[in-house]
Structure prediction request, 140 residues.
Amino acid sequence: GSETATEQGQEEEAEDRLKEHMDNLLDKSAKTRQAALQSLRLALSSKTLSEFLLERRLMLTDSLEKCLKKGKGEEQALAGTVLTLLCLQMGSGPEGEEVFCSLKPLLVSVLTDSTASPSARQSCATALGMCCYIAAADLE
Prediction:
């Protein structure tokens, strides 16, 4: 009984940290946003969080969109990586497709922007390819 309570407490603590990181994506400071993106990248790559993300995918998608639009270099690269992981977590269902479709034009925009940093362009190319493979319903 106490093991289950401990696990549940750890899970709630981890979710609270994730919520905090998601809130930090909207911070004015680029360093704070980058730290939040790095923390989210680590969390999404180490644990399956589909239930948690399902409820928050729109908020997270909006935040990633802002990071891709307004961020520079490293922030855009991290946002692309987090987007790829989010698509992986959402899977090939309608939720994953929704995330991909809403950010696809922005990924293409960063990818084709010759003034964007090479790391940002590479990350957006990877995100575009992976998300397209996982979540695109339209075969083209």
